Amino acid sequence: MSNITLAPLPQWRILIKSLYTRYPSDRDLAKPWLLSYSDVPYWFSRSTFAMLAIARWYEVYTGKKLPTIWIPDYFCNNPLQFLRDSNYPLIFYPINEQLTPNWNLCKNIVLTNKPDIFILVHYFGYPSEGKKARQFCDEHNSILVEDATHTMLPQQGIGSNGEFVLYSCHKLLAIADGSLLVQCHRMKVLRKLSDKQPNAVMEQVLKTIPQESPYAWKWLFKRILQKFLPDYLWLKRSTTGDLDDTYSVPIAFKPLQSKVSRALLSAQLLYINKYTINRQVNSSILKTFNKTNKKTVLFQNNDYIPYMLALQCNTEEYAKEYFCMLKKNRIPVMRWPELSPEVLADTKNHSVALKLKKTLLFFPIHQSLGLDTIKKIGFFINNNPQNTLGLKDYKIEWYEGRQEQWTDFIYKARKSNLLQSWEYGQTKGRVEGWKVKRGLIKSNGNIVAMFQALEKFFGPVGIIRINRGPLLIDENDNNFNTIYNIYKTLRQTWKWSSGKVLLIAPELLETTENIGIMILARFRKRQVKSWKSSLIDLSLSDIDLRKQLYVKWRNQLKRAEQSGIVLDVTRSDESFFWLMTHYEQMMKDRAFKSTSIKFYKELHRLNKNNFHVFRAWFEGQAIAGILIVQHGRACTYQVGWNCPEGRRVYANNFLLWNAILEMKKFGCIWFDLGGIDEIDTHGIAKFKHYIGGKGYTLVGEWY
């Protein structure tokens, strides 16, 4: 059963866990949102009470009655209810199309109405201009409040600039109520306003508010019903074409968070990081469905934690038409906000906010939405309730050609790796008994990707492994739809029903878009370490490559160069077996496991021309060596060895630096440092990081 809701539904395990959860302290409950030990958390039922508490705190702290509060004009009127009831002066400052303050107009307004409290909103989870707001408030001795009520967690640019930060946990998590106010110690402005203790003043204010909480059982009963009942029984369907679905509901004065919500929130704390990924993945998937030029995604990048997917329609007329179509088909869509009367009355100064209100539509992307639900919403986003991500003309052509042509494909790949090379497949077959199958994925007759699969049967069950593949062929064909179709084709080629299990570690970076692709293609993630490494761009000049070395690493390289080390670069059998002998002994001495010597020897026998051994000689003795294997236009660091004397004169720095320069001469454009493990080999990882390449993490293993 599909559950399509605007807000997340509680999972059964969370409901059960909450029954046995002990009520944590305010600080323990707020731990994911605190950036500093000095931050002080206060829990409310809704952020409207937190804003009222801040205003009253300002009165007690400074002695000034009725402080002037600046609020962005694109702000919902409903949460301002209690500020209005208390007669606090509200100034609505304009925002621009990027939903950040219009600072030029703010500088004009401040001449006649200086803010005592300035509220900066991080709309829909996207970081606003916190540093500029901080500077503005410092200039005018104003308290900065960061409204992060659309934000799951603090992140870069959110939560680090204000004296106060607001989070509305009930908007992003499955709880009936719960808003967090974080009081931060940013003393520059505070000292100018008063010599009182800010935290003590807030405690004094909170003693004056009613100690009441909203009734949460009704919310819980409704959410449980929604989990049981089909959508059409409760999801509102509109046939009237009424676009104005935002309206005020009076808020009861019950400021504190309920015990039910507190227990539910405590039960979800361990899953918050997972929820953030779910939101980013769902957002990435939905963005790919927007194919028309009549609407655009508000925030294109995915390096933030989204609240909802915001689509901006080109015209108000199209927004009305599109909104009505979605409502008639019971697709969850929301308009926001209910603007304040002051903004509605002044169309000249608040034109941007009015335009956003009329043209923006919002879709849920929360963590309790299943893949089928996301796809259903996506099809309607594309104005077409049919699957727009079909395989079309994608198919696999099994490769029966020669090694030379496969190697040509490797050269055409965007970023090749050793594991997809012909010789690697042959070695896996001869040493470990895998059967090699090679395929070309074509679209409209054109090759878009290549892969090498390894197959082995255990009784009636066949295991197929694709490691670090497929490789994309076309440099310019790296869009979501193409990559999705590639992996969907693989998914449909090997099915569980046929007794074959596909285990795949894709050559895809660990981004929310790529995770979305794997989920959309019906793969499931395995709980194993993802491959991490670092790439050096050999298209840079030698001077620039040297500049990007960390200072300490570069200084060690200088000492090595001045020590009299002699470089030896060769592809001879003698140098390879010399290095393997020392490497095998090092594995025994240090008791660690790696790729077997037998495997390396067979791979070398098949691929001698691409095995480059770099040796360092000092005073007539070979004191260190490394192996670099070339594959297409890239190469990978494989093994290294040095003796105590080599470590003393920094021979490894010397060898790696010269390997970078030499592999560039051999025509390589990428130098892969061959894996980085910060946990098990922290020292080696640190050494590789200091070379200055660009670190990357792949999307992991899936089945």
Strand and helix layout:
Blueprint: H1 12-19, H2 26-29, E1 40-44, H3 47-62, E2 69-72, H4 81-85, E3 90-93, H5 103-109, E4 117-121, H6 130-139, E5 143-147, E6 164-168, H7 169-172, E7 179-183, H8 187-193, H9 198-206, H10 217-228, H11 259-268, H12 272-289, E8 295-297, E9 308-313, H13 316-328, H14 341-345, H15 351-359, E10 360-364, H16 371-381, E11 394-398, H17 403-412, H18 422-432, E12 435-443, E13 446-458, E14 461-467, E15 471-472, H19 480-493, E16 500-505, H20 512-520, E17 532-537, H21 542-547, H22 551-562, E18 566-570, H23 573-590, H24 597-606, E19 611-618, E20 621-631, E21 634-642, H25 644-648, H26 651-665, E22 670-672, H27 682-689, E23 694-697
Parallel strand pairs: 2-3, 2-4, 4-5, 5-6, 14-16, 21-22
Antiparallel strand pairs: 1-7, 6-7, 8-9, 9-10, 11-12, 12-13, 13-14, 13-15, 17-22, 17-23, 18-19, 19-20, 20-21
Helix pairs in contact: 1-11, 3-9, 12-16, 12-20, 18-24, 19-20, 22-26, 23-24
